[in-house]
Amino acid sequence: MKFLNPFPTAIGPSRISPWVWGFLVLSTVSLFLALVMANLQFGLVAPGLLNPLETRELPERWGVQNDWIHAVQPVMVAVGIVLGMRFVPRRPWGYLLGSTLLTGFSLRYFIWRSTTLNTAHPFSLACSLALFLIEVISLFSIALQFYPSVFFDPDKRIHQANKYFRSRIKNPPSVDVYIPTYNESVKMVRRAVLACRGIDYPNKTIYILDDGRRPAMADLASELGVKYISRPDNLHRKAGNLNHALGCTQGELIAVFDCDFIPFKQFLYRTVGFFSDPNVGLIQTPQHYFNSDFHLRNLGLDFLMPSDLDSFFHYNQVVRDRFNAVICCGTSYVVRRQALASVGGYYTKCIVEDYQTGTSLEIKGWRVVYLDEILSLGEVPRTFRDYLDQRLRWLQGNVQIYFCWRDLPIWTKLGVWQKSFFISQALYCFMPLFRAGYIILPLLSFVIGFSLIAAPPSEYLFYGLPFTIILHGILSWQSNSHYSQLWTEIYESLFCFPALGRLTRMIGNPMGHIGSLVTNKDVMNLRQSMDIRLAWPLLAYLVIFSVAMFARYGLPLINPAWMRSPFEGEEVMLAWNAYNALIIFICLLACIDRPVRRRHDRFPLETIARLRIGGQEVWGVTQDVSESGLTMALTDRVVSLDGGDAMLDLPQSKLTLPSKIVRQSSKHGYPVLGLEFHLQSVEQEEALIRLLYNETVWFQKLNRVGIVDSFLILVGSVWRAEPLVRRFR
To answer: Range(s) for CATH 3.90.550.10 in the chain?
Structure first.
């Protein structure tokens, strides 16, 4: 029976409900009045000049002594708390303690901040108030994400998966494995199919869902012994492709892998057991990547820093699982066919289908489970432009869900906790606006010469720095080092200005399709390059700040009088802009894309190898290993090799690979050979895929970095400035 798609093609205009606007306006006015009352109480309103010369004073109980020892005492307490939290057990009471400490320091900071608005002039008040509101909203967003950490328990689902894995049933449910593709290369799809073929599960059927209608894909399916499905049009993009496949297949469960993902051997046995609970409709696993994010690669930080999605997949999703608020992420998941049928299939109205389809299941009462166990590896975009293209599409899809309340009544059908996660997600969608405020407002303050925080440096040291230390330290601890506030600011700074452009374009038509629909992964770039059209806001910031610095402090002959006059809080604004300049400089370095010249990624796999060539046999250690070849350092100093064809044996992996010597050199007196694989069977290809892309090798394992290490790595990336110093020939 053909699977029916209940969603109409036409999309009418969307409007924001009046109560939403009313709530927003009322909240803003209420907060503004509260701040005015606080300032009146402390006697800080000083109309007149943009920068009044009279010194603002706090009430005696809030005052800061001129003694610097007194000012740094809270800083020392905050550092002690962050260090001490490392010894607190990761139990609900420990997470509650962390949240309580963060709450206490946050209240202390924001009570003080409410007294630091620059009320001397309407313009300074507007800018100062805007920054304060951004800080409040940002902290509220963080609270929604991290206060439920008391329920953070990543091991719970893993223990369940272990139980299901040990008690595997003899007649497991049938699984259809979908590999949707549109315009990706045959090489990429082939790798995904080979990995799916290697999944240890007896009752599975693999399908290539080709929306490009390419004969090469049909030939690939025939060669590898899998099914091939295409359709006459591309209606509704990936969602339409999946819905069409639902009508052509019959499996009880459906596993979906994007063609740039490689599942592990035990993927299905680790997941299908959860469907023994009849209420489970979908199980999502994390996305983990075998190549580094573009910015880490460009900065030379491969294998040092985790992905920018690390905290989402290994913290946020785990917490969401407790409240049935898990986000379906479009790949590396298994879904029950019956559950999909109950919601009419994949959701088609938005530019992405995953988040919306998972939400449909939750609204319908199905349980969406999250297993925090890496069971597949994916490929991330390799250039700044492709990264932005992917993330902007995700952003647009995440925003669109709030305009689908007729089909997805999240505010009326879901529970309180589930709604809180949608509020958190909505705030996150507008985080580019807040990040732009953190960048632009301090720069405006420094250039014009007025303070956004009307307080001396000693007060900021007493109130602001302890809060900052606690914020960075507690969030890192609560997320088990999956979250770094420092690197989050880098990610947000890279993304904010292009994202503001996309959000602006969405104002007139939020449900329209802007930008590309598929992320480019097959990139070949022979030169080191920077996309100025995307990086120019970052470059403009550094230019403006540098000119302002020279004009204010360095070139007395040309700087105007209004820039020579000091202003209250100038030291704080200078420090803030210097920090922003550091972040922006790192962002600019990250935007300098390295060349991509290789057809396959190389991995630092070191294993004992034996090379048989002619009548000779030599031993060595592998180094850079890829799908097409490797480098092998021999243990014998002098070896005479006659001929080029050879057989490479990897005893530890029980793998033999026909090879050809294509390069010879020496290092420290030992021969180094470059080998190219000449694989002769599909089984050899499968074995090589399992060797490179599996959970046992160190370079594919999950990486976590603490707050100190992340800071040192950040400073080191500036010190080395590798994209500027290194030349890729």
So the answer is: 170-415
445: which residues sit within 8 A by CB, 6+ positions away? 127, 451, 452, 573
User: Which of 385, 289, 305, 266 has its CA nearest to residue 603?
Assistant: 289
The burial of 315, by beta-carbon neighbours within 10 Å (0-12 exposed, 13-18 middle, 19 or more buried), is given as buried
**Residues 320, 421 contacting (CB under 8 angstroms):** yes
Contact (Cβ atoms closer than 8 angstroms) between residue 208 and residue 189:
yes
Give the tens place of pLDDT for each residue, 282-326. 999 999 999 888 888 888 888 788 888 999 999 999 999 999 999
The pTM (predicted TM-score) of the whole model is 0.88
DSSP letter string, 258-301:
-TTEEE-TTHHHHHGGGGGSTTEEEEE----BSS--HHHHHHT-
Nearest to 239 by CA among 226, 252, 256, 227: 256
Instruction: For 162, list phi and psi in degrees, rounded to 5.
Output: -60, -40
Contact 603, 624 (CB under 8 A): yes
Q: Is 503 left (phi over 0), alpha (psi -120 to 50) or beta?
A: alpha
* Phi, psi of 614, rounded to the nearest 5 degrees: 60, -125
Contact predicate 375/702, CB 8 Å: no
Q: Any idea which residue has 């992340």 for tokens?
A: 710
């902007």: which residue's tokens?
Answer: 392
Instruction: Domain 606-696: state its class.
Output: mainly beta
Q: Say which DSSP state 234 is in.
A: -
The Cα-based distances of 128 to 50, 120, 133, 454 in angstroms read 12, 10, 9, 9
pLDDT of residue 475: 93
Query: Does the domain made of 170-415 have the CATH classification 2.60.40.10?
Result: no
Q: Which two tokens stand for residue 433?
A: 């606006």
pLDDT higher than threshold 80 for residue 643? no
How large is the average pLDDT for residues 475-482?
A: 92
Residues 6+ apart with CB under 8 A from 370: 157, 283, 284, 285, 317, 318, 320, 321, 326
Give pLDDT tens digits for 112-157.
999 888 888 888 889 999 999 999 999 999 989 888 888 899 999 9
Structure tokens at 185: 């290369």
Q: List, by residue range, all CATH 2.40.10.220 domains of the chain.
A: 606-696
The Cα–Cα gap between 601 and 152 comes to 35
Q: Given this model, what pLDDT does residue 423 score?
A: 94
CA distances from 504 to 55, 501, 535 (A): 41, 5, 18
Q: At what angle do helices 92-113 and 122-146 cross, to 10 degrees?
A: 170
Range 588-626 burial, b when 16+ CB lie within 10 A, else e: bbbbbbbebeeeebbbebebebebebeeeebebebbbbb
Return the number of other C-beta atoms located less than 10 Å from residue 465's C-beta. Answer: 18
Would the CA dihedral through 364, 243, 246, 354 be positive or negative? negative
How many CB atoms are closer than 10 A to CB 715?
Answer: 13
For helices 465-478 and 68-84, angle between their N-to-C axes, nearest 10 degrees: 0
Stretch 703-714: mean pLDDT? 85
Write down the residue that tokens 């057809």 correspond to: 599
Cα 206 to Cα 182, 203, 245, 352, distances in angstroms = 17, 10, 12, 23
129 vs 126: CA distance, rounded Å: 5
Side-chain half-sphere exposure of 270, counting CA atoms within 13 A: 20
